Amino acid sequence: MVREITHDIKQLDCAKRNLTLAITTLKHLHILVGGVDTLKSLTEKRQYGEIALPLQAISEVMTHFENYTDIPQIKSLSDQVKSIHQDLAQQITRDFKEAFSGANAKSFIHNKQLASACLVVSALEPKVKPDLLKWFINLQLQEYMHLLNETEDTAWLDKIDKRYAWLKRHLIEFEDRLGGMFPRNWEVSERIVLQFCNATREELPKIMTKRKSRRISRRYPRDALPA
């Protein structure tokens, strides 16, 4: 009799675990189905401020169904989530490029929509943020690369202080206008400085080589060389 009772208890425990798992799965499925429709609507309306949290939740819920993608309905939902991620990445990238590459780029100030978009980017695939930052940092240094190019007189070593003056001025302007738009952990100002240093390190040897060539040319003009 004890064995029978023990056996029944084990069966009940197993049934309870299965029931709990089934209820949890149904809850996750409900969140997933409703969340996909919500994300599609919010993405179309560019309501980035309302996307970040549900996007993270949907991504976490989706991990519970990784072993069930052979089920057509689950695979369809998984594909829709991936599509939403791709659409958001492309859309936000376009929004940034339109904001910073257009006629009003110089006067562009802190934008709440793009600030919210940054939070969405943080919840997307890992490569989305680095790609966006790479483009943005290069854009920030575009003026520097033009003004202090090796072909410009202001690029000579005796005017190297102009480089750091430009950096200081640009960082102050950037922090005033756009610093609050990016999450602190993106370290955008630090990235600008790092890229500035890398670009300067690459440019200075070119300038030194060019100056050396000029000195040699002046000291030994072609006309003075023996035939």
Automatic annotation (TrEMBL):
Domain (Vps53 N-terminal): residue spans on this chain: 1-214
Any one of the GO BP annotations: retrograde transport, endosome to Golgi
Superkingdom of the organism of origin: Eukaryota
GO cellular component: cytosol; GARP complex
Family matches, as Pfam families: Vps53_N
Name used for this protein in its record: Vps53 N-terminal domain-containing protein
Lineage of the organism: Eukaryota, Metazoa, Ecdysozoa, Arthropoda, Hexapoda
